[in-house]
Every structure is written in structure tokens, then in C-alpha cells.
Specification:
The structure is a single chain. With about 120 residues, this protein is an alpha+beta fold. It is about 40% helix and about 35% strand. The relative contact order is 0.14.
Length: about 120
């Protein structure tokens, strides 16, 4: 009687390991993308909080305040988590309304910008 040998040959094991390695490399790429997305979300959240705080301060100022005079206003940059955030705002006066456009920009390898707008009546 001829006995059949069962099990995996060395070639089959190597092919299986190659497929496993390709799958692990794909997962590593996804992990890197996930970390970058998480970092961007963190920076976006910090910039958004800063903009909201500044816009609320501007909304609570008297309309005659120098900070609410029409034109462009550049503010000092601020640093959070090692990134420099540049901030500026523009006040546009039309009839009895003042429109405020507040912008924050940062560069973490890619330039980003968020702008909030609000309108104040006199």
C-alpha cells in the first residue's frame, strides 16, 4: 500500500507567508492614514475652539470699539501642539450691519484654513 503524505509543502507555506505579509503591509498603510487623519482632526478642533472664542469676544465688544472698525486686522499667531496658527479677521460695514470674517491658518505639511463669519447689527 502507498501512503499519502499529508501536510503543507514548503512552497505552500512560503506563499501563505507572502499573502500574510502583503496584508500586514496594507494594514500598516491604513494605520498611517488613520494617524494623519487623527492629527488633522485634533488641529482642526483646536483652531475651531480658538476661532469660536475670538468671534464671541468680538461679538461682545461695543460697536464703537477699535477692534470692530472696518478693515483687516492681523493678530499675533498662537502656538498649540507645536504648530503655529496665524489669525486674522476682516470687518465689513454695510448700512447698520458689521460682518466679521475670522480666519485661522496653519501648516502641518499641508496648508489649512478655516473661516467663521458672523453679522452684528447696530
Amino acid at each position: 500500500m502507498i501512503q499519502r503524505k499529508t501536510g503543507f509543502s514548503l512552497v505552500e507555506v512560503l506563499i501563505g507567508l507572502i499573502f500574510l505579509a502583503i496584508g500586514l503591509l496594507a494594514l500598516a498603510g491604513l494605520q498611517i492614514t488613520s494617524i494623519r487623519g487623527n492629527s488633522f482632526s485634533h488641529h482642526l478642533m483646536q483652531a475651531t475652539y480658538q476661532v469660536q472664542d475670538r468671534v464671541e469676544r468680538l461679538k461682545n465688544l461695543p460697536l464703537t470699539s477699535p477692534e470692530l472698525q472696518p478693515g483687516s486686522h492681523n493678530l499675533e499667531p498662537f502656538t498649540l501642539s507645536g504648530l503655529v496658527f496665524k489669525q486674522s479677521y476682516t470687518v465689513i460695514e454695510e448700512a447698520d450691519l458689521k460682518t466679521i470674517h475670522y480666519t485661522v491658518e496653519w501648516d502641518d505639511g499641508v496648508g489649512h484654513r478655516i473661516t467663521f463669519s458672523t453679522i452684528r447689527s447696530q
